[in-house]
Amino acid sequence: MLEFKVTYFFDEQHYVRRFIHVESQRAAERLIQSERDQYISFTDSRGIYHELNTSNVRVVQISQYHRKT
Asked: Is the pTM value of this prediction over 0.85?
């Protein structure tokens, strides 16, 4: 499994970030596309729970993430 960082931008200053584990970049893209225009929920890396209406997002950015150990 690969780890991807997904950032949801609402405007130039406000965003929410989550990390997902899927087998490829394409799988990450398909997941994000399948969640379009609906509510999703997740807990971020700090343990904060989020409920997000993806229809309010202006830009979604996906990038593979490499954690430093």
From this structure: yes
